[in-house]
Prior knowledge:
Number of helices: 21
Helix content: 25-40%
Number of domains: 4
Low-confidence stretches: 1-14, 23-32, 122-127, 704-715
Shape: globular
Largest sheet: 9 strands, antiparallel
Amino acid sequence: MDDDKVGKMKMKGYFVLLVVLFTGGCLYGQDYEAWLKRERAEREKFAKEEKAGLQKLQKEYDAFVEARDKEFSEFLKQRWKEYEMFAGKKRDAGVPKPKVSPVASAKQDVKTVLLRVENPDEGRLVVRDASPVLRTKKSGSKQVRELQVCYVFYGNKVVLPVDEALKLECEKVNEEYFASYWLRASQSNYDELLDCLFAYKSALGLNDWGYYMLVRAFADHFLKGDNSRHLLCWFLMNKSGYMASLGFGEGKVSILLPARQAIYGRSYISRGGLHYYIMADLKRLATYEKNFAGSNRLLDLGFETALNFSVDRVQARSVVFDGREVKLLYNAHVVDFYGDYPSTELSVYFNTPFSNVAKESLSESLYAGLQGCDSKTRVSKLLSFLHESFPYMTDEEQFGQEKYFFPEEVLFYPYSDCEDRAAFFSSLVTLVAGLPCVGLSYPGHVAAAVKMDSVNVGNYLLLDGERYLSCDPTYIGASIGMSMPRYANQSAVVIKQEEGCGISREREDRVLARVKEAGGNVLNVSTGLVKGKDGEVYVTGVFDDVFRAGREVLKNTSKGNRVFLAKLDKSDRFAWALALDGSGENDLPRHLARHDEDVVLSGSFQGTARVGGRVLQAEEGQGMFVVNVGRSGNVKWTSTVAVPRELVDEGYSYMMKFNDRGEVLDSQFRPMMPEARGEEISVVRDNKWMISGMYTPVRPLVQENRIEAKHERGVLEMADRLKAINDVLVQENVHSTIAGLLAVVSLMSDGSEIIRGEEFIRALDRYNSSFKSKCPNIYKNIKRVDFVKGEHGFVDIKTTDGKSITIDKMRLNNGSRIRFSELPEGHVLVEVVDGMSVGKAFIWFKLNSVKLHRDTGDLVFDYDRDHTLKTFNLGRDILQ
């Protein structure tokens, strides 16, 4: 059986229970034409009212886009300045690496020595003080002739709709032509193309540089000639919101791209305090001095999610672990992608997650040998694994030049050197041992250090007041706490791992348990949990009735959920807690971030709210809030920004900028777009805070007439109502395999709905009667589901006996909580707040979310702290 089929069989059980709990499959039965007609009329009325509220805003957007394009075109006509070009930087070679990996002496003592390290940067600092500009879409009313471009991007089929007006061949190489090109390209319908490109970026788990690679691949397939391709990339990257300049010299054109991280080995110019890397081979270069006003985002070469590529080229490497031979799988498409990736800073390699193929293989192959072991034994076994199973060779010997590996590449290449092994080891320890790691970069060498409270002997460093023990995957035979003698007294630069924010998996579980015991829920672990100094942890979430944080008791006097912010000390005891006490029924925290001694919490609220004695007011009904809290729990400042009323029901992308006193310096709101990401908080120069993200509405996909609904509920049983909504969705071109699932989502988005287990069974028996015989075990377990209840945007799932349900690779705990929201183009996001995990035996990963694609039937699962992605098609991979 090939690896693709094996992968599908292994993962199938992750999702079957989730699918069946939400729907009885595709619903078939008699039509309710009268009900559908009333339903359609109600939806049309709602759409007209909504459209009227957005028309004025769209006209303003169109005028703004047109004026901005004309202004930039006029600027481009001016004579461009010739810049000095600098040769690509080489990595600091420092002390030459050893030709062979050194071997630790059996007689070498493990000494307790505090290592000298350079202080890592506090917080996430960006390199310039500029507010990102959100993409503004045109109305798209112009009739266009649409072409279709298809190509394969690292094993993934890409199909893009393109306006023929974008098929522009480079005719001249001068300022006047570039200005004309910009106006001609701007008049095309490029927004639909960008929407699709960003949708692929999200589905494939691409980062910013991966997005540029996707755009460049499109240009290569769409146009002939490097000059034409560079011009198109320049236009599309700018219109995507990224900084991108254009340069030319001696008849050649090149796109110029600045990035947050250094790119080694590539020529560049220096402009405005940034390095603009040259993507073509030019000997002379002239360019303009001012960026397009709509492009202000630097490309980030770091990865926020795992790559989610096709698994039709899974390969294996045989190694020995703990005395037994195991096969470790990796995705060859992912390795090919990394092979074309530019050489960049070490921090990128230390913070790149494994693909789903490698992650599942490493977990299943190695975890059994670590089960029951304490943290010291786990790390010792993994350290020996690197020493014994991965031969050492310098990059100069293997490639003739320096080349850093991403962790997954270590499974592909026959040899690896120190920085490759250190990044792979750090990722491995975090994955299978659940312990935080950092890298240690010495002149000419890279090692690692692991946070272990149980080990007090050995070379160590202190980071945020906590002890990290030196571990060197290149020092053969070395135990925990041993450093190579030649580096033991040298200062090292700490390379921090962003995943988990320095919190071990065991501690994360303890903190979440304490929050739940207190009466709260953390909505998103990656954005709602942050490590403070000296072992402290800050956490945010919501509670329904009472939140008991030690001596602090927070009460909810409203009908909706309440937002809390709390601090736990190094012993996981509550130090203090604050509540956002407001009048809204669905106030939500969005993101929590730390900078120096303070934490900043952002979120959305309605009406009026109070926190720390300060009053927050949403003038337009809904607003975004930001609260700056000191280490002792004192509220230093609060700030609010009103959300345009026209966007509240539609969902929106936003950007806000504040100074260190909480005064609003800038704010932007746009209709939600495919490129919108979850909340981000960064600190720029002069302690200015920048917050960006998206708000997704919670609403039924099919709006019911509330008066008629009461009558219909007395006539139609739940199964029949699901069938009726299913029919509406199918007529609106929703994929037939997912229409039933989205019908249940629509009902559960209404807070008044309760769907009991026996109703699921009736739906299955009536409209999918063969399911009982095809999946008897799943059918039996459905009866254990007591009810699914939507309230204030959340859905609670309980079991009749109070115990968890495990079917194959998925575990559903009693009291699981999820939240539905609608994404652009009608896709639905199922956010898992608590209680769902994927894995088997001893290996369980928290399920973060599931994205439901209404047009294809694809389900994109996001799990674990590193946001591993995996795509399944409901029809092909699950229901068949």
